[in-house]
Amino acid sequence: MKAHIAVLPGDGIGPEVTAEAVRCLNRIAERHGHQFTLTEQPFGGAAIDLTGEPLPPQTLETCLKADAVLLGAIGGPKWSAPEAKVRPEQGLLGLRRALGVYANLRPVKVHPALLGASTLKPEILQDVDLVFVRELTGGIYFGEKRREADSATDVCTYTVGEVERIVRVAARLAQQRRGKLVSIDKSNVLETSRLWRQVTSRVMREEFPAVSLEHMLVDSAAMHLIRRPREFDVLVTENMFGDILTDEASMLAGSLGLLPSASLGDGRRGLYEPIHGSAPDIAGRGIANPYGTLLSVALLLRHSLGLIGESEALDQAVSAAIEAGARTADITAHDPPATTRQAGEAVLSRL
Ligand code: NAD
After folding, report:
1. Separation of CA 209 and ligand 1 centre (Å)
2. pTM (global) more than 0.85
3. Counting beta carbons within 10 angstroms of the beta carbon of residue 288, is it exposed (0 to 12), middle (13 to 18) or buried (19 or more)?
4. What confidence score (pLDDT) does residue 260 get?
């Protein structure tokens, strides 16, 4: 098949991990007879340095024309001063909005060989296999923001339509998995959460009667996630709760560096990125874990290009590389750990 993929390496470790992803995509194209056109564009802090804007028009245009967008990570201390007028994060929110990707899927699976890499006890982690579905283009991150001399305000809004569409994505996913959906809110305090709970109950009752639904308060969910993570299948929640809980959930797998994400809208085009940030503390040293990005490529192959076999092959290659001991410093105590390139090479050689 022919596909056009926009590649946005971004900042910090972004370019290091996307370099491995590009090598894997090229190898997959070569092995399976596909024609992938990869177009790199500046984004985030790197784009601010080049053009003054985090999402330059040409970058946006390339993304809008592409079948899928692969992103490394953005941000860093250079662009984070409180008084800064433009920020890399504005580019990311703008890109998500422009692509209409309102559903962020974050699978968390614990690799058996890495049971010891987490700070949690191995017996709690065995067989954990869950997916977070986080609402991505609404809520407090997108609401009106105001600053006065001695106060600040962030407005949180959700509409019925926004809740319905994200719940449908999560419910369809639960149908294909173990048929269990947990919806997370703070309905004892927030009006937006009461709307969320009401709409979720109705959509599930009317459209997905075979999927079991449990409502959970966000504080309680934060606790159960590390107390009995195995019992979760699909979890759906709003933007900010999802942002926080998915970082917590990433620790089940052992490292932020291992986890992929897919951001999807109504069509096939999606935005794929590892869940970690630009990791300024380790950037430029070639030691970042590339597996979260490579697993994001597997999600891209599956959701945007419909290449299920290729996606599974990449998933399995990452798994086999980890099993064979190709582990970066964040997931091994062995000295010396694998470099980013060595980990990428271990996957390439298994494709
Ligand atoms: P971070 O995810 O960049 O790093 C947190 C910790 O995890 C660091 O110690 C880092 O070294 C480690 N880590 C992250 N990814 C790793 C990898 N692949 N391999 C090994 N170790 C890894 O979060 P942060 O430090 O809070 O944020 C740094 C910058 O990234 C900030 O500017 C933030 O705004 C930005 N950020 C961007 C995104 C994104 O691009 N989507 C997401 C989160 C944070």
Report:
1. 39
2. yes
3. buried
4. 96
Query: How many whole angstroms separate alpha carbon 85 and alpha carbon 322?
Result: 42
The ligand 1 atom nearest the CA atom of 273: 41
pLDDT value, residue 118? 85
The per-residue pLDDT for 206 is: 98
Domain that holds residue 94: 1-104+256-351
Residue from 104, 278, 285 to probe ligand 1 pocket by mutation (most atoms less than 8 Å from CB): 278
Paired residues of 261 in beta bridges? 273
Mark residue 147 as left, alpha or beta (left: phi above 0; alpha: psi -120 to 50; beta: remaining). beta
Residue 80 lies in a domain: yes
Low-confidence ranges of the chain (pLDDT < 70): none
Read off the CATH number of the domain in which 157 is found.
3.40.718.10
For residue 110, being part of any structural domain is answered with no
CB burial class (10 A; 0-12, 13-18, 19+) of residue 235? buried
Considering the domain architecture, whether residues 174 and 279 belong to the same structural domain is answered as no
Measured CA to CA, the distance from residue 279 to residue 19 in angstroms comes to 16
Q: Please, is 308 exposed, middle or buried when counting C-beta atoms within 10 Å of its C-beta (0-12, 13-18, 19+)?
A: exposed
Q: Which residues line ligand 1 (CB under 6 A)?
A: 13, 73-76, 80, 89, 92, 256-257, 273, 276-282, 288-289, 292, 328, 330
Helix/strand/coil percentages in the chain, nearest 5? 50, 20, 30
- Note whether residue 278 is domain-resident: yes
Q: Name the token pair of 77.
A: 């201390």
Of 261, 260, 251, the residue nearest 331 (C-alpha)? 251
Q: In angstroms, rounded to a whole number, what is the distance separating the alpha carbons of residues 240 and 273?
A: 18
Report pLDDT for 247.
86
